[in-house]
User: Fold DNA-directed RNA polymerase III subunit RPC5-like from Hirondellea gigas.
Amino acid sequence: MKNARERSFMHHQRIILQEPWVTMQYTGMGHSYGNHLAKQIFHCAESEKVDRFHLPPSHFLSLLSQAPEPTNAPTTAAAPTAAAASAVANASSISSNSRKSRQLDIPKSLLYSFTLDQQIERIVRNAEVMKFSDILDCLEPEVVRAESSIVDRVQTYAVLVQGCWVLKSHLLYPSSDKSTDPTQPSILSISSSKAVIKKTKSGTLHTNMQKTREYALYLLTTKGHLNRKEIAVEAPITADDLLLMLRGIAKPIPTEDGQSSGLWSFLLETDNHFIDKYKAVCQRYHIRWDFQFGGRT
Assistant:
């Protein structure tokens, strides 16, 4: 009788009613708070292969057949001299110019979980200098159809130089802690409540870095090249910071005998395809550069 009573519906219902209640917070699919927590969880993951459980069908095959990254065998050598180190640095800078764009530092599955504006911001920050076609390659094929809309969104974070897009100077060198840190995109960073004037490790004010970089971009747009001495007078900036800034947007032009000429050209080849397709956008930026620096040359 006891076993039959324990198997009865009334007995099970009484046990269920006697169970203690536990308070839970439910967040439905698509809720902003749930998306925010998901970004924090997956952003902290060390593995590049993050399963988001809702990958777009168009990218499922690409995740299955990812190409292995090339590995360079480590080499050991004696400490180079200052001249040798400078030559190696210049060679490294020049060789890096041949690549189309830098690889994203996050998996595309995580990138696609952000809004379109956040995706473009992360892509532009990651590359600093990029062709428009390479930006489109990083976005979802479904989004690329609205190409003209993407051009408008890119201008929020980048300026046009020789048909290519360059990260804005105030985003790369924020003037205070309340500005966005270029190493931590604004969609994932926490701003400090106290504004502090920011400087480089060499002690150069970020505001001076902004002025010098903007003038360098103007010269690259109008003349196609620049001279280090020509932009060094724009604002007080150390030689190391000037060289580091130039390597992000330009490449040195050697003489016929391989020596340094002091001249620098733009980091990428001119994107004539974009210039021909979006002539109105290019014209606006020519007016912008002339208005900002036209009276100096």
